[in-house]
Amino acid sequence: MSTTIETPDAEERCAYCDSRIFDHDPICVRDCDADCGSPTYFCNYACLSAHVDSEGLTTGASCEWSPE
Question: Is position 5 within any domain?
């Protein structure tokens, strides 16, 4: 999986709250299960976490474990 690293535009907006990402502590994520498409930017971990929760991205994404 090869990706190109580029610095986003200074006016890039957070995918969750629409704030300018460089006004905060930006995070870039890619979905590399789907061909490492375009990056999605979030202004901080709180917005990333809120996005994951609001989109239900953890539902069904964990391993099953049984103590038996």
Answer: no
| 3-state secondary structure at position 21 | helix
Q: Determine, yes or no, domain membership for 63.
A: no
Q: φ, ψ for residue 45 (rounded to 5)? A: -65, -30
The tens digit of pLDDT for each residue in 2-39 reads: 566 788 999 999 999 999 999 999 999 887 776 777 88
Predicted structure pTM score: 0.74
- What's the structural domain count of the chain? 1
Q: Could you tell me where the beta strands, DSSP code E, fall in 1-68?
A: 27-29, 40-42
* φ, ψ of residue 13 in degrees (nearest 5): -105, 150
* HSE, side-chain direction, 13 A CA sphere, residue 54: 9
